[in-house]
Amino acid sequence: MSTSTMCPEKLNEENALLRKEIASLKEQLEWFRRQIFGKRSEKIVGNPDEKQLTLEGFDALFSSAPQQEKQVVAAHTRKLRSHNGQDSITLPPDLPVERQIIDLSEEEKVCAETGLPLTKIGEEVSRKLAHKPGSYFIKEIVRLKYALPKDSEGGIRTAALPDSLLNRCQADESFLADIMTMKFADHLPLYRISEMLSRDGIGISRQLLSKWVIRAGHALKPLYEEMKVQILESGNVFVDETPLNMLEGGNGKAQKAYMWILAGGNDLIPTYRLYSFRTNRCHCHAEDLLKNYFGILHSDKYGAYEKLAEKKQIIWCPCWAHVRRKFVEAESGDPVFRDWVLRKIRYLFMFDRVAWSRSEDERLRIRRDKEAPIIDELVCAIKERVLHGYALPKSKYREALGYFCGLIPYLKNYINFPFARLDNNLAERAVRSVALGRKNWLFVGNEASGEAAAIILSLVQTCRALKINPREYLEDVMRRLMGHSSHKLLELLPKQWALSKRLI
User: Fold this and answer.
1) Is there a contact between 253 and 247 (Cβ–Cβ < 8 Å)?
2) Strands (E), 433-475
């Protein structure tokens, strides 16, 4: 049937369908434009005329922030230079000092008018931070040999070698710690480290460096397993996963693998970061990582965690930041309702920021009195909108509504536990080290290297979370691990190590 012969009702119906399709395509186009060219921040700036929620003590938390003075200059205002220490440097007290003395020439030391020699009255010193190429040296371990008396059958005696993480390895623990820190803290690929060493006249191939790193990673596995025990025993776990490439066999092709992240602890900022390498994203890996775990779990809405929550194995606290992200991306639909939802979620984060500055009991009270009513209001409004509102079936607005409704039974779980969080940002931030790494070293060679990378990443990134030097930690622990009691491995974890050294 041609368009000219269609009845008005059919034309109106076709017009409505085309309008829906155009709206959906426009929304997709805007999303892609924002991903490539636009800002990806989810920060929502409120209306200055809007009446804000108030809470006793809320404004006082931010009133102590230093306010920059403004100097009035003709035609405009200029911010005064801030002297808050950011332009200064701090140096260790034992940093070596090399003196460079610059003296006058012999002719200049004589007064041109009187012919008398000048008198030295002091010196003017300028201090600058300087650099030399990294210093390497050969460490010779000399063991003296002693022969027993001739009438003895004991033979020759020599002192035992000190404990070493890798037997018959030509690299000392200090060198291995430096290589591992450059790769897993500074994200330098091994081929680049090999080039840096060659500039100092040290020739070590990337393949040999890789062998040393993999062997060292697997030798540190007992500490890795102990860290996993500590995270799961904390009862407060954050989990996420991110893809990375792994080479297939010897054909040079790459397949997608995954690095899972577990973070946890009952601290204001949990410090343990544990990475687990897996060849895929199957639900069985989540079940294996969280085997016999029955505490609080923060995560996104991945089906593996949802399944554990449905079985009531865990207390699931889904991430409100992901909920917010869905509504930020839903630019079509009902913009007034979307802005209302985002404003309510912003209030949740504002109140929870205040709650974290108070005691545990006060935190729970603020959540029950201030945050729970906001969640109830959101649940009622979104349910009403799903049942009686209008949304394109495949639009991001409809997707945001459905995402929220699927989480309704779990959205208030965090309110009843003082160390539970409103979001899963702790694990999200821990993912960044893998994301930065894969842009530099691109892939892992096989499962063994992926597992070694996960072990070393766990120790290095935990050190970074504690703000301790991973190089110093790795060197000390690698020297002590082989002779340390297996029942006291907790003493060698980064947090306990730092406490024993009084670094935190």
Assistant:
1) yes
2) 443-444
How far is 233 from 293, CA to CA, in rounded Å? 8
236-247 and 296-299 beta bridge pairing: parallel
C-alpha–C-alpha distance, residues 504 and 495, integer Å: 8
Spacing of C-alpha 196 from chain mean position: 27
Alpha helices in 220-334 (DSSP H): 221-234, 283-289, 303-310, 320-329
The whole-angstrom separation of Cα 151 and Cα 305 is 73
Contacts 24+ apart (CB under 8 A), 441-444: 441/183, 441/187, 441/188, 441/189, 441/190, 442/189, 442/245, 443/244, 443/245, 443/246, 443/247, 443/254, 444/244, 444/245, 444/246, 444/247, 444/257, 444/277
Supply the pTM of this predicted model.
Answer: 0.80
Tokens read off for 436: 């930065």
Residue range 36-64, pLDDT digits in tens: 766 666 665 555 455 555 545 456 545 54
Count of residues in the chain: 504
HEC states along 206-222? HHHHHHHHHHHHHHCHH
Phi/psi of residue 289, nearest 5 degrees: -65, -35
Residue closest to 274 by CA, chosen among 434, 420, 419: 434
For residues 378 and 317, what is the distance between their CA atoms, to the nearest angstrom? 17
Q: How far apart are CA 221 and CA 49, in angstroms?
A: 57
CA atoms 129, 132, 134, 140: torsion sign = negative
- In whole angstroms, give the CA distance from residue 63 to residue 65: 5
Q: What is the DSSP track for 345-405? A: HHHHHHHHHHHTTS-HHHHHHHIIIIIHHHHHHHHHHHHHHHHHS---TTSHHHHHHHHHH
- pLDDT tens sequence across 62-92: 554 445 555 555 555 555 565 566 667 777 8
* 404 contacts: CB under 8 Å, gap ≥ 6: 323, 326, 378, 382
